[in-house]
Amino acid sequence: MRILVTGATGTLGGALVPALVKEGYQVRALSRATRGNTAHVEWIWGDLVSGKGLDEALREVDAIAHLATSGPRGRGFVDVPGTRMLIAAAHAAGVPHLLFTSVVGADRAAVGYLAHKLEAERLIAESGLGWTVLRATPFHQSLDRRLKDFSALPALPVDRSLPWQPVHSGEVAARVAGLFAGGPLRTEIEYGGPQVIDTEELVKTWLRARDLRRPCPPVRYPGRLYAAQRAGDLLTDATPKGEITWHDYLFPPPPDPSDDFAAEHTASPTSPANQPEQDPDLHVYGGDEGYERPTRG
After folding, report:
1. Distance between terminal CA atoms of the chain?
2. In the chain, which stretches have pLDDT less than 70?
3. Could you tell me if 66 and 100 are in contact, meaning their C-beta atoms sit under 8 angstroms apart?
């Protein structure tokens, strides 16, 4: 089976590509930057918003892992127009299965970028294609980067009323890879981290791991999205769950020696898949969700 991965250079894509290779799939990765093929991955240029390159990208493809979401105009830029374009191209190519990665709570709190996710889900469910939607909670790696962005501040205000359920991107990737074996589910499923923690625990654990000291004054974050999070709308009880906790991500145990390709690339938070600057096959050019500046028109 050949699987096309959109958003292959993002946080989840960088973990999914080797996970699919490990499962024995042929992997084709869509990129907005021209890249050479590797021993395990066929890279192909294409643009979801304009549709350029999609016909070639979808030729002889059996399934699509649609991860791309961000673009030059910010988070969620690709979700609706890119998904609409991808659906049309998938129909033309006769692709039988489109798997879309969304966010837990999109159906309960359609606010901001979650509204884009929910609309993309609707387009896919009504597309006539075989489809699966996997909604995940926030990634450890994304929260780590978010906190790092704020680390220059003299204090880190925390809203103790906000629950978080972070999950490791490598575990989400393994869940996605496993879903292709059974074909389209034609439903939405959820996948979350193993524990729920509040913002104070999230931040203070991160400060210890990064050997930083900052006061954490209590605040109440405003806005409808935080209100939905405060109400628990962004949490899930679905099983199975991830196993790597926020603490274990930040304080990882020494990895066991292994020759296993996917274990080396996806299991550890310090693996090449999660440190893409150390892995020439999986370098992230465009940030969290796979947007890259185009290199050809």
Report:
1. 30
2. 70-77, 257-297
3. yes
**What pLDDT shows up at residue 288?**
38
Stated length of the chain: 297
77 with 71: CB under 8 angstroms?
Answer: yes
40 and 27 Cβ atoms separated by less than 8 Å: yes
Strands 163-164 and 197-198: antiparallel
Q: Which residue type occupies 174?
A: A
Q: Which pLDDT score is estimated for 289?
A: 44
Q: Nearest Cα to 106, choosing from 135, 83, 128, 78?
A: 135
Q: What's the rounded Cα separation, in Å, for the pair 12 and 229?
A: 22
- Quick check: 189 and 132 in contact, CB under 8 A? yes
Which pLDDT belongs to residue 262? 47
Sequence-ordered list of residues with C-beta below 8 angstroms from that of 128, at least 6 positions apart, any chain = 91
Per the CB < 8 A criterion, the answer to whether 167 and 136 are in contact is yes
User: How confident is the model over 2-20, as pLDDT tens digits?
Assistant: 999 999 999 999 999 999 9
